[in-house]
Specification:
alpha/beta, Aspartate Aminotransferase, domain 2, two-stranded antiparallel ribbon, 12% strand
Length: 285
């Protein structure tokens, strides 16, 4: 560690937080190996031109994130990182990013609306053209008002078992993407972590990054999102929110079981993480 210095030229917030974030980034990138001893607080404070107290607060923040451990008289050491589980879908040669390659024709694809490789685009185009003929003003005009039946439809869609939301709690938006991003922007601040699965609807995570939110990734298995890894991420990075598709998830089509949903909800309540669900296929359960 004698030649290592943190990069404090980027990021925002107080110096101790930027220092902690820089060290965490270098740990994630493998610049600082597991088991490595961080520089003594006094030495690092001298090298970067700050106080020992500032370095101490940064090291304490890293301990809270579960990244380092410290003992009086021995120093501060980097803990071993959690090994990512092998994702069967990620190793599939027919998967590129979040899209399937050479999908057979006649199959419905959930990872793309158009999907020209299987002829889905032609069907979508036909539906849109007929809609334009039957409702020309609706398809060529902005929506400036929402009829009451839209709010009732939202209540009906979200109702499960004995739960039924009030129409006053329904907020129509111009698409799911707009709704999710509006929620992220309203309930989080720049620098906050948003949790995503490794295979997810990537446009949301990219958009969140454009407005200054940071991404924390959790692993999945054949049953969907792993609650234990979600808890690990919560303990280390303290995210404010998680985006997930519990039913027919894009692009894996996995549907979370009731037990998985309960486990995820328990972790979210314990760490005060807001869950955003893309419920596009929720009525299939």
């Amino acid at each position: 560690m004698t030649n290592w210095l943190p990069d404090l030229t980027s990021g925002s917030g107080p110096l101790y937080q930027r220092l902690a974030d820089s060290i965490e980034t270098d740990i994630d990138r493998g610049v600082i190996d597991a088991g490595a001893k961080l520089p003594p607080q006094r030495d690092l404070a001298y090298d970067i031109g700050t106080t020992v107290g500032t370095v101490g607060r940064a090291y304490q923040l890293l301990r809270e994130r579960g990244l380092v451990s410290g003992e009086v008289g021995r120093g501060t050491y980097v803990l071993g990182r959690h090994e990512t589980k092998t994702d069967l879908l990620a190793s599939d040669p027919h998967v590129e990013g979040t899209r399937y390659i050479d999908a057979p024709r006649g199959k419905l694809r959930f990872d793309s609306t158009a999907a020209p490789d299987i002829g889905q685009g032609d069907i979508v185009a036909d539906v849109l053209s007929r809609t334009a003929q039957d409702h020309p003003y609706e398809i060529s005009s902005y929506t400036r008002d929402f009829p009451d039946r839209w709010f009732e439809a939202g209540c009906s869609w979200l109702s499960r078992n004995s739960f039924r939301p009030s129409p006053d709690g329904i907020v129509p938006t111009l698409g799911t993407h707009a709704a999710v991003m509006a929620t992220i922007a309203a309930l989080t601040t720049p620098g906050d972590y948003i949790v995503f699965e490794h295979l997810t609807y990537s446009q949301i995570s990219r958009s969140a990054g454009l407005i200054g939110r940071r991404t924390a990734l959790v692993t999945s298995d054949e049953e969907g999102l792993d609650p234990e890894d979600f808890e690990r991420v919560c303990a280390q990075k303290h995210p404010k929110m998680m985006f997930l598709m519990p039913t027919a998830k894009n692009p894996t089509l996995v549907t979370l079981s009731a037990a998985r949903r309960e486990a995820i909800a328990r972790v979210a309540r314990e760490y005060n993480v807001v869950l955003i669900e893309d419920d596009l296929y929720g009525d299939l359960t």
